[in-house]
Amino acid sequence: MPSTAHAFVDATASDGALRRFLHGLPGVDAVGLEARAAALGTRSIKTTSKAYAIDLAISMIDLTTLEGADTPGKVRALSAKAVHPDPTDRTTPTTAAVCVYPDMVATAKAALGGADVKVASVATAFPSGRAALPVKLADVRDAVAAGADEIDMVIDRGAFLAGRYLETYELITAVKAECGTARLKVIFETGELSTYDNIRRASWIGMMAGADFIKTSTGKVAVNATPANTLLMLEAVRDFRAQTGIQVGVKPAGGIRNTKEAIKFLVLVNETAGADWLDNHWFRFGASSLLNDLLMQRQKLSTGRYSGPDYVTVD
Amino acid sequence: MSERLSVFKTYKLYVGGKFPRSESGRVYEVTDSKSNWLANAPLSSRKDARDAVVAARKAFGGWSNATAYNRGQILYRIAEMLEGRKDQFVREVSEAEGLSKSKAAVVVDAAIDRWVWYAGWTDKIAQLAGGANPVAGPFFNLSTPEPTGVVTVVAPQESSFLGLISVIAPVIATGNTAVVVASEKSPLPALSLGEVLATSDLPGGVVNILSGKTAEITPSLASHQDVNAIDLTGADTDLARDLEIAAADNLKRVYRPRPVDFTADPGTHRLTAFLETKTVWHPTGSLGASGSSY
């Protein structure tokens, strides 16, 4: 994105300049951050607000299957679920996207047909990111050629933690260049970044390099999306828009399993970034089992009786 | 010597192997048969009931797959624990039901014996409720009973301990898990039973005990789509009718209330009420043209 590059042309001129810029970002008050995230999690969302939040959350899900055992059949079943999450109630919104490995993009694309559900593909040697640059770029090209609407890339945490910020920045710009019209989500794997300061720095690197979304994690490590690290990233996209006018989306992924948690994240979005982000163009949940709980809660609201796992698909 | 300060017991729910207070934070006063205050018991809300169903569902896989022999051992262990806390139950039963200490002791003894009796049934009910079926074909045909699933038990209102044991034990003996709504007027023996269950190898969530207003807690359990059966023993006629209607929606098994003398021989009908029959057809091999057989 030329305007982004232009705004930060000085900061990204050299490794030293980028380091000075990133280390010049204000430090994160870890206790304050966690207290703020916890306080916002105590809001009680009921009745019509809850119904709105559930439908919004369903429409924000990147329904994900990223297993070694994924088969075309499983991807087709997942795609069918993305289009009709609750076959007994056609007023249920579709999910935002299905998220698969690059070799499953064509299968997902075919299964979704003309439905308004995007196909997101992980790439760049997901989940570890341990491959040479040409391999990562080839991975992205493959996914885009197969028809992926969105690319979820991982940064090289090794390079980032070793302080090679410019290398991280250039990796993202190189991947962005391969994406064409596909939107780019940059995964930081916040659970491996050790500190909140690092998460803030990584967020800025991602946004400066042209990410369309910044994403917490792969879902493959012990610590995934938490309210605190998502709050921090929401603050980053808010500040970035205030400074550059460019809006970047946020995607927490992994570990969000039930409606209550999902609604807490929506409260964080509304209170931090603002209502502009309450749309699946700007906020996503990377999740799989979350959808079932949202559907059960939705059934509870519409019928007045508690639903059960027998009434949603097992995937 | 100064007089000791009395140490009052906080009665709590028993859900998922833990002892939570009611999610609502409410309690109600429990009195003895002469209306003297005994304790405050949690006044459960429908959200407590929901949590109890989640716990019961979670425990179902492990409990129903445990061997019948193992279930029997655990139930017997519970009887051992009950025996050790007999004095407490005698006191609670005598206060709740207005019985003399000696009469209450008879009731508690009968309850513990009942529990042992049901413990013995765990590995025998399959022979009673299942077996080989004669069929007109070259098949070996075998039926075996399996637990129904999560069972809501509306415990009897009057018989606060013997009645309670008589409705819980048969449900879990066959591998079901239970959400028990204790007697509204006399919930203390039930809440104390939770403390026994927690210390006797019974996996958390197999039995969940709620106290409160029967008419408030039971409707959401009767309509709950993840509850497979409901025992209406402690529901009055009007409530039982409403609950049965609500239960019809997902075809729950319903055990209707009927007059019952808990001191009499219970028979096996409560054991078989919450079982499903699985039947297997196995070819005997004599289908071949040669007429050969195993």
From TrEMBL, chain A:
Keywords: Lyase, Schiff base. Its EC number is 4.1.2.4. SUPFAM superfamilies: Aldolase. GO terms for cellular component: cytoplasm. GO terms for biological process: carbohydrate catabolic process; deoxyribonucleotide catabolic process. Belongs to the DeoC/FbaB aldolase family. DeoC type 2 subfamily. This is Deoxyribose-phosphate aldolase. It comes from Streptomyces beijiangensis. The lineage of its organism: Bacteria, Bacillati, Actinomycetota, Actinomycetes, Kitasatosporales. The gene is deoC.
TrEMBL record, chain B:
Transmembrane segments: none annotated. Coiled coil: none annotated. SUPFAM superfamilies: ALDH-like (SSF53720). GO terms for molecular function: oxidoreductase activity. Pfam families: Aldedh. InterPro entries: Ald_DH/histidinol_DH, Ald_DH_N, Aldehyde_DH_dom. It comes from Streptomyces beijiangensis. PANTHER family: ALDEHYDE DEHYDROGENASE-RELATED. The keyword ATP-binding does not apply. This is Aldehyde dehydrogenase family protein. Keywords: Oxidoreductase. Residues 25-254 form the Aldehyde dehydrogenase domain.
